[in-house]
Amino acid sequence: MFYEALDKYGDLIALGFKRQDKWEHISYSQYYLLARRAAKGFLKLGLKQAHSVAILGFNSPEWFFSAVGTVFAGGIVTGIYTTSSPEACQYIAYDCCANVIMVDTQKQLEKILKIWKQLPHLKAVVIYKEPPPNKMANVYTMEEFMELGNEVPEEALDAIIDTQQPNQCCVLVYTSGTTGNPKGVMLSQDNITWTARYGSQAGDIRPAEVQQEVVVSYLPLSHIAAQIYDLWTGIQWGAQVCFAEPDALKGSLVNTLREVEPTSHMGEDHGAHPGGGGSVWLHPAKDAAVGHVGDLGAEPHLPRQRPEALHNQTGRLPGASQGSPGTGICQVSKELLWSGPHDGRDTALLPGSQHPLVCGLRPQ
């Protein structure tokens, strides 16, 4: 899948991120090379086939190319929620046989240092947003880690890639919100590639040959919805994925949406029904006026297909007002097009109508 993306979209922007208040970008060609360097770094650190690289950090380019590099190296990508306690991290890292753990900050590093002795498979930790407080054995900065990969021949990595099989597990997603300990769900390579290709039809995601989609990555990548939509579907169709700030759900997401102007956006509602909610992908209808998100106002001001936001964490749609709190029902005041993931069909949301914000619910 990545090879095809490289051939078709190599020069296009793949990832957008903010450094010191300025947006920077990585092309698909650069993305691929960074993933290969990460893969060789993992091999140098002793990643064994069918063992995991656990990633404990907020959405970022490092999360992405570490994940792709893990798959290239024959390992299994395992995301850990950033809100996890040291004990929860220990359970998942032990259960997935993590050889390497990637962390973004000193706060996350401290969690792993507390539990390292209970992780017999763990060989190294890489910290990629902040430097470690002091020099520690087997703890590497991102720069040191990427340099390690220079010692592994390209041919050695190519040989590992060539031996991989479609039914080989490449991602573990641990459940949240279930009773007892989290359960690891295995996703094979053909599961990921099929879902990225066909599941995205529910959201009317278009290939970059038609129009490059712009997506904001803000939901936890340790959850299957965000990982499929942001990471793997992005590669499949050559989307430009821009990363929100770590405090996105505390209010900064709106600023990111203003700056990026996504063409496609996914939101989730976890409390609307006993099943725990679901996801919606949204696009403006062809001639629909698209307004602001939330309480920013309702006057349309952006070009079609460049909505400032299509759904936000408060459960509102542009041109729609929230109904009863917690019901997941919205009142539509401007025509919108909703693609429901449960059936993949486009539904026009007409002015004056009410609609659910989660797949599987019926309009009330």
UniProtKB/TrEMBL annotation:
It holds the Pfam family AMP-binding. This is Long-chain-fatty-acid--CoA ligase ACSBG1. The lineage of its organism: Eukaryota, Metazoa, Chordata, Craniata, Vertebrata. Belongs to the ATP-dependent AMP-binding enzyme family. Bubblegum subfamily. It is found in: Cell membrane; Cytoplasmic vesicle; Microsome. Catalyzes the conversion of fatty acids such as long-chain and very long-chain fatty acids to their active form acyl-CoAs for both synthesis of cellular lipids, and degradation via beta-oxidation. Can activate diverse saturated, monosaturated and polyunsaturated fatty acids. Keywords: ATP-binding, Cell membrane, Cytoplasm, Cytoplasmic vesicle, Endoplasmic reticulum, Fatty acid metabolism, Ligase, Lipid metabolism, Membrane, Microsome, Nucleotide-binding, Phosphoprotein. Residues 264-283, 343-364 are annotated as: Disordered. One of its GO terms (molecular function) is ATP binding. GO terms for cellular component: cytoplasmic vesicle; plasma membrane. It catalyses: a long-chain fatty acid + ATP + CoA = a long-chain fatty acyl-CoA + AMP + diphosphate; (E)-hexadec-2-enoate + ATP + CoA = (2E)-hexadecenoyl-CoA + AMP + diphosphate; hexadecanoate + ATP + CoA = hexadecanoyl-CoA + AMP + diphosphate. Gene3D superfamilies: N-terminal domain of ligase-like (3.40.50.12780).
